[in-house]
Design brief:
324 residues, seven-stranded mixed beta sheet, five-stranded parallel beta sheet
Length: 324
């Protein structure tokens, strides 16, 4: 497809101006590239990683998706293998790299964006080693910028091994003794069950966990969600609003089974810590040697220096992805 690239003069320098610059080459950024490739728009995708898919390869070794391959593929290229099986994180990373190569998407790796400004209707993107300009910018960098770790972690002994899920790879990183996994989402629950094979493991949560099966009547639960229209429900619909209020479930009854078998000891929410002791919401305490913080991430858009981009709470102001 033919693409036109214009030029722009700034301080006497003639710069190339793209129609679109996409920031982030994960599944969202690559999907945008797939559709942009079908247009006559000039575009470039920027990604800070050395290889496409590294954002998946760098996660913990045992990570397996809870969506089957048939619901983990991007448009135009099925994920190889049994469509009803669940891919590993390395398979997803390799698939994303193959996707970018298959459609010959223009991607610039090892490029971290430090700043975005807007002047005379044109976006100026400053990276660690270059400056780019575009008529439109798509931010597909994801919400996982900085690990969210409770402040009381700083009060704990340096003898405790503390790792955020973004740092955890496998059991070899831990020392002997009790392991505490703080956070009862899908990652936290999966890691707690893994640690329980070799460590006395505790999982503190703020509220009762809700579990859903990976399969129901020999079909993926996501296939049932699809048939019921849940996957395409907008956030403003009655169903969408109810789903948002419910929060994220934990997928996999086999995880629930191992927790009910007593392999993972449940605790109430962790509220404070001192030296090597963690105190919980019910007043009990526990001495620990290892902590995995499965407490999520904090989004950071401070590098987008454009008025009215963020709300007073720091979230992006948008309507179905389109900002002011």
């Amino acid at each position: 497809m033919y693409m036109s690239i214009c030029s722009y003069t700034l301080y006497g320098l003639v710069l190339v101006i793209y129609d679109v610059i996409v920031i982030g080459a994960g599944q969202a950024g690559l999907s945008m590239g797939y559709y942009l490739k079908k247009s006559s728009l000039s575009f470039l995708i920027l990604d800070k990683n050395e290889r496409i898919g590294d954002v998946w390869r760098n996660r913990y070794d045992s990570l397996v998706l809870f969506t089957p391959r048939s619901y983990s593929s991007l448009r135009g290229l099925p994920l190889e293998g049994d469509p009803n099986s669940f891919p590993t994180k390395n398979e997803v990373g390799d698939y994303l790299e193959r996707y970018a190569n298959t459609f010959d998407l223009p991607i610039q790796n090892n490029t971290e964006v430090h700043r975005i400004t807007k002047l005379d209707g044109i976006f100026h993107i400053t990276t660690h080693n270059s400056s780019l300009i575009a008529k439109n910018v798509i931010i597909a960098s994801g919400p996982f910028q900085y690990p969210k770790i409770p402040k009381f972690s700083k009060e704990l002994s340096k003898e405790i091994v503390q790792l955020h899920t973004s740092q955890f790879k496998n059991l070899s990183q831990l020392q002997e003794g009790t392991a505490l996994v703080v956070g009862g989402g899908n990652s936290g629950t999966q890691i707690a069950v893994e640690l329980a094979e070799s460590h006395h493991t505790y999982l503190p949560v703020g509220k009762k966990l809700r579990y859903l099966p990976l399969r129901f009547r020999n079909k993926s639960v996501f296939e049932w969600f699809d048939k019921l229209g849940l996957l395409k429900a907008s956030n403003t619909s009655l169903i969408g609003k109810r789903i948002q209020k419910m929060g994220d479930p934990v997928f996999g009854y086999e995880l629930l089974g191992k927790i009910n078998d007593g392999k993972v000891n449940m605790k109430s929410r962790a509220v404070s810590g001192n030296k090597d002791v963690i105190t919980f919401n019910d007043g009990t305490s526990l001495r620990v040697e290892n902590i995995i913080w499965a407490t999520g991430f904090i989004p950071d858009y401070s590098w987008v220096e454009i008025p009215n981009f963020l709300s007073s709470t720091g979230s992006v102001k948008h309507h179905r992805g389109i900002t002011e």
